Amino acid sequence: MPIQTWSEDVLVAELQDDPVLTDDLKTLIDDVEKKTEMNVVLDFAAVSYLNSSNIARLLKLRKVVIHTNDRKLKLCAINSHVWGIFLITGLEKLFDFTDNVALGLASIKIEE
To answer: Which residues partner with 16 through β-bridges?
Structure first.
């Protein structure tokens, strides 16, 4: 997964489907636990499904970024199948979504 440092306080991660997705989320969690000043933008454009392991890691990432580090987490470019998973599980109420990475980056900067 390409993790790009977009600015001194924003990471952008281009996610892929499993088995890479599970490992990428774990790596990202480890990164934000060390770099507590980082906001995170997740690009889901290449993700076509989520499993329970992915969801658990997303929730852990949310906890670290939002609650522990007091930073922002944006999920971008969600396709309709993955959006359905967020709706069925009720997770659409927990995460902030934008249509694309550019809007996710802009919303982080606007909210500062």
So the answer is: 46
Least Cα distance to 2 among 11, 10, 13 occurs for 13
Check the CA dihedral 17-23-29-30 and report its sign: negative
pLDDT (tens digit per residue) in 14-71 = 999 988 899 999 999 999 999 999 999 999 999 999 999 999 999 999 999 999 999 9
The domain limits of the chain are 3-111
Alpha helix (H) ranges present in 1-112? 20-34, 52-62, 80-89, 101-111
- pTM, 2 dp: 0.93
Q: For domain 3-111, give the CATH number.
A: 3.30.750.24
